[in-house]
Amino acid sequence: MPATPPPDSPYDLTFLRAEAVRRLLRLRDAQRLAHHDVRTVAAAFAVHWRTVCRWMDNADAHNGTYTPQGRKHFTLTQVMHDALARWHGNVTAAYRELAADGLLGTPPAASLATFHRAVHRELSPGQRAALTGGERARRRHDVHRLRPHGHRNEVWETDHVEASVFVNVDGRRSKPWITWFIDHATCVIPGLAITPHKPSQEAILAASRDAILCGDDHRPFGGVPQKVRVDRGRDFLSDGVDAAFKKFGTELIVLPPYSPHLKGTVESLNAAVKHTLCKGLPGYSHAPPSRRDKRGHSLWQLHELIEFETFVQLVLDWVEWWNNDHTIARLHRRTPAQAWAEDLTPIDTIAPEALHTYTLLNPGSPLKITSKGVRWKNAYYVGDWMHGHATAGELVRLRHAANHFHEVHLYDAHTLHYRGPAFRSDEMSPRESQRLERARDREADLYAAKARRARRNATARYAATSTAAPPQRLNRLSASQAATELRELHTRERDVTSETRPDLLHRPKPSATGWTQPLPETTAKDTP
């Protein structure tokens, strides 16, 4: 039977000492106490036999119970705790303030070293971190228990992670993002999706489709999970993602904010890909200072970066290594594939044909097939199968992948049978797309320069001073310069409408009859 631990006490051996002293006192009362008994107890506690005699004297003074007094310590008052909070954990600064106000107790006042020892004795490392860095710093000192492992496909975890490496995406430097799912019980990665920019619900739906399907071109791991843990990211909370998981009865567990420890499996996976893959690739964004300029920017040239397609292949190879060759201590030094194969829990699989509309969004009401195709979002979509169906005015329902507007899928409005794909008829050419991107970049640079100039002009500059004096404004303008700048600003305000909406037509002037015209400004001022 395990021993019951004693209650909180500053002395670990207090209760054992008390029992030993009580036995010696009983022997003494029975006149059977020998010096050998005292020496035996002293040897057991590694102290001198005279110390044991003092313990017995202490018990005689406290009605036969050994009661150590302990050392008296300097303790913090509420005023001292308030000073520490006001100085955000700066113990020395709080001590100076308390010493100046005479709030360190009765003379002689506690020394700085004594105050430091009291703070470290009464405040835990987590409490001291909270005073210095806030709640997020305090959480680093929390202890979290391990979740029950369960069985495969019981709980999945998903997350986005930004790769710590720059890649070449159509001649531009960009950091890809990885969206993946991981099984909590076996640490298997059943599916993922990679985007060259910040992901959206499209990446979540694509990754979930890849994770659910298993066999053929997909990994041998997958199926329908019972639960999926997600954070409070806007993409994971979208209606499309919620509806997609509910179609198969999967419970979407939305975790509280600022709680990455509640999905530690996928968080460990995010850290693993950064340390074991990204660090060895050219374009690593967290390179040492030798690979950075004075502003801290990476010195990797565009021609030194790997292509986006190469990065995707490297990530897929890394996932294969993780699933089949990487051993994990939590799995008793087995690979995730071995843990998955040894788990005999049945897998709920779905045929690929049933997942055709899984990642497609339904925009709304049925649309009519006309001679120009199907009109949606100010564009016409046509397909080869539409010939012979235009004059009948057939109704179809449109579905599309998230953010994919160049291709849609059409279904019969009544039977919901799949009719076929349709493509945007006025799709721009690659050259036009490149010209549009360049024009957008020029416009963005123009407005960025305007914003920098406006911030520079709006920032007030003052003269440096070494004495207590009112601030002296430096970038002051003369009266004529101020009048000129005001005229320019009024001119820009009048032109802002035409600049933002060049196709906006001017409103017609109201006619003399039938309209109530405002009074002129001079008349309005003269009117009492």
Description of the molecule:
This protein is α+β, with helices and mostly antiparallel strands. The chain has 16 helices and 14 strands. The strands form 3 sheets. Strands 8, 9, 10, 11, 12, 13 and 14 form a 7-stranded antiparallel sheet that branches. A hairpin with a 7-residue loop joins strand 4 and strand 5 (191-195). Helix 4 packs across helix 5 (91-101). Residues 524-528 have low confidence and may be disordered.
Order of helices and strands: HHHHHHHHEEEEEHEHEHHHEEEEEEEHHH
Give the terminus-to-terminus CA distance. Answer: 98 Å
Uncertain runs:
524-528
Mean pLDDT: 83
Radius of gyration: 37 Å
Tally of individual helices: 16
Say how many strands there are: 14
- Provide the β-strand percentage band: 5-15%
Largest sheet: 7 strands, antiparallel
Could you say which structural class the secondary elements and strand pairing correspond to? Answer: alpha+beta
What spatial form do the alpha-carbon principal axes imply?
extended
Name the helicity range. 25-40%
